[in-house]
Amino acid sequence: MVPPRLTLDGLTKAYGGLPVLDGVRLTVAPGEFVAVVGPSGCGKSTLFDVVAGLERPDAGRVLVDGVEVTGRTEPFAYMPQQDLLFPWRTVLDNTTLGLEVAGVRRRAARDRARPLFAEFGLSGFEGVRPGELSGGMRQRAALLRTVVQDRAVLLLDEPFGALDALTRTDMQVWLSAMRARHAWTVVLVTHDVREAVFLADRIAVLGPRPTSVIQELHVQLPRPRGLSVLTDAEFAAAEARLLAALQRS
Amino acid sequence: MTEPRIAEAPAAAPLQESHLPATTLHEGSFPATTGRAAGAGFRRALAAAAPPLVLVAAALAGWQWFVVATGVRPQVLPSPLRVAEQGWAAREQIWANTVPTLQVTAVGFGVSLLIGWAIAIAVDFSPWLRRALTPLLVASQTLPIIAIAPLLIIWFGFGLLPKVVVIALVTFFPIAVGLIEGFASTPRAATNLLRSMGASRWQRFRLVRLPQAMPSFFTALRIGITYAVTGAIFAEYVGATAGLGIYMSLSKNSFRTDLVLAAVIVTAVLSVSLFALTYLVQRLVVPWYRRG
After folding, report:
1. What is the number of other CB atoms lying within 10 angstroms of the CB of residue A162?
2. Which has the closest alpha carbon to A3: A32, A39, A34, A30?
3. Which of B173, B172, B183, B210 has the alpha carbon at shortest distance from B124?
4. Angle at A138 between CA B16 and CA B281, to 5 degrees
5. B197 — contact with chain A (CB < 8 Å)?
6. Which residue among A23, A246, B53, B257 is the one 20 to 30 A from A200 at the CA level?
7. What's the farthest any 2 CA atoms get from each other in chain A?
């Protein structure tokens, strides 16, 4: 059996005596796409901060490929809710930021990011400022900045939350196709039930604060998924099961 | 002279890390409207300059009329035409005094920038220094420069040093505060993004906090530069061998009110020119930042 790529082993965290995470347990297999869904304010973002190594848990461990990495940032590439593309950098130089931080020379970093631009629908926009990109393009550039770091696990924190409905659907279809071509291991935090069912292999449902994983749902839909899957009976069933689980939480 | 400075310096603003949404970050990211045809730019500049010019012209006309109508003596109030005439006649003398003032301003403001940057960076890196220095920075602005400047002359003589001290004292504060607040305006999410990439404190400073602070720095620079010229004039007024300040002082003592006013006009032109220069520098240093 393949050891899990990512293991969250009883993560617990409190802020000022207020418990937020209460023993969160989750495993993610290599190449698996797991969505984490929970009621708003349940501590999803705190969970991500702890997993990404930005905050230390009070108890519990984070393991990658069986090795403890609690409080470390290197195994994770993190994509926050806001695109955070910096106006003083070109789109290309925004996407190479993580590589530059890691000590890759600017020239080499650009050579690594540039070939990805076509796949991310950003060809020809390498030299422009982020302000000239549309919302969807900005989000794709932010994702490019995330994946080009070549980390073990991608952590996506509501990446499409700020987009309008049409653009969001486009992005979801696009991400689904991208994911079919790449062996990314992804943890996606979202409060969008459809997004979770559409993108994920498995969905972890979080309970209210102090939160833990109260249920896991497998999404038995073929891959890659196109828009037609939205009308599939299994899609509707999965969506209903997820909604029911959230209601109980 | 010192009061408006204290009032305008954003001293009361909080120095802690703010949780502003990323809107500040994207201010400059909309397609610029500045790169249009040069003709449009010229017409806009003209449109911006016209209202103040009209006001100044009206004020000068009123002044001229008042002097002619009342027959007031030129030692008390010279007419604007007389100021222009006599100023032009004394142009060589005035120019000879303008150069030292410019030099003093440049050196003093350079020193002020150095001090402002050093303090702001130190404060940004050290919460302890922030707590230690913030009250002292504010206290430094309560010093009555008007009383201290003559002492500086006694201590340091009539040379460059006392003037540099006055200018630095007058201008380092808005620069330091502007930078400190600029650094602190970095959104927490941006800091976290950099941390998730494994960035060191220095990398976070260089890659995000420093560019983030530039708009705020240039605002502070504009406040500082206008005080730099008046600071120089003031320091010279108290005691100098050359410069517009001492020139005004001597002209006043010999009842040449017209020459005092001519030097005042030169001072104003100097300040406005330096002020405009900051926009040029901003264009060159932070081309990505354009205001609405």
Report:
1. 14
2. A30
3. B183
4. 60
5. yes
6. A23
7. 52
Please compute Rg for chain A using Cα positions: 18
What predicted TM-score, i.e. pTM, was given to this entire model?
0.82
Task: Express each pLDDT in A150-165 by its tens digit.
Answer: 999 999 999 998 888 8
**Residue B283 forms contact with A (CB below 8 Å):** no
**Residue B100 C-alpha, separation from nearest chain A C-alpha, in angstroms:** 38
Which of B29, B185, B193 is most worth mutating to test chain A (most A CB atoms within 10 A of its CB)? B193
Question: Torsions phi, psi of B13, nearest 5?
Answer: -70, 150
State the amino acid at position B173 in one-letter form: F
Pairing of strands A6-15, A153-157: unpaired
- Cα separation, A51 vs A61, whole angstroms: 9
Tell me, what's the ipTM?
0.91
Contacting residues of B for A87, CB less than 8 Å apart: 25-29, 288-289
Other beta carbons less than 10 A from residue A23's beta carbon: 16
Are A98 and B286 a contacting pair at CB < 8 A? Answer: no
Mutation pick from A51, A84, A145, A154 vs chain B, by most beta carbons of B within 10 Å, is A84
The string of pLDDT tens digits covering residues A48-103 is: 999 999 999 999 999 999 999 999 999 999 998 889 999 999 999 999 999 999 99
pLDDT at B8 over 60: no
Which of A70, A11, A68, A73 is closest to A36 using CA atoms?
Answer: A11
Q: Chains A, B: CB contacts under 8 A, how many? A: 72
- How large is the greatest C-alpha to C-alpha distance in chain B, in angstroms? 76
Residues of chain A with pLDDT under 50: none
CB B192 within 8 A of CB B24: no
A101 contacts B197? CB cut-off 8 A: yes
- In the CATH scheme, what is the code of domain A6-75+152-248? 3.40.50.300
